[in-house]
């Protein structure tokens, strides 16, 4: 079994000896066993915290590198006008602490449409429709935004202040 214990952050596909395709739920875990896309048995033993992102590299003591890929899984893509409508939908979905992928289609330049992608949930879907989104239920890779405090290799977040007094950063 290939043991992977170190996060490398984003790597080029050519830097890896194999790939490991995982759904989002599995990429949130730090310890698990899996089979690589090339059929290798791998054991993942990582620090807790950062979610494995599509394109991240993992390595172990033997120096072999595996590249993580986001699996295709059921998602809902809500499309609507970019700008304030997209921002409003993203705000209301994010306010419900749901993981979101946000983007625009390749041809969005002419249409001005953006999208928000999330796991299927009838309550969130109803909210998106009320805010004017057109929904598409389909299978696609789900690689949500990492969050403003996320940094490769760090669990949680850190604040660096140039002054000295107490802060309560409870979450």
Automatic annotation (TrEMBL):
InterPro entries: UreE, UreE_C_dom, UreE_N, UreE_N_sf. Residues 1-66 form the UreE urease accessory N-terminal domain. Gene3D superfamilies: Urease metallochaperone UreE, N-terminal domain, UreE, C-terminal domain. Keywords: Chaperone, Cytoplasm, Nickel. It comes from the Bacteria. It is found in: Cytoplasm. HAMAP family: UreE. This is Urease accessory protein UreE. Residues 157-171 have a biased composition (Basic residues). Involved in urease metallocenter assembly. Binds nickel. Probably functions as a nickel donor during metallocenter assembly. Belongs to the UreE family. Pfam families: UreE_C, UreE_N. Residues 138-171 are annotated as: Disordered. SUPFAM superfamilies: Urease metallochaperone UreE, C-terminal domain, Urease metallochaperone UreE, N-terminal domain.
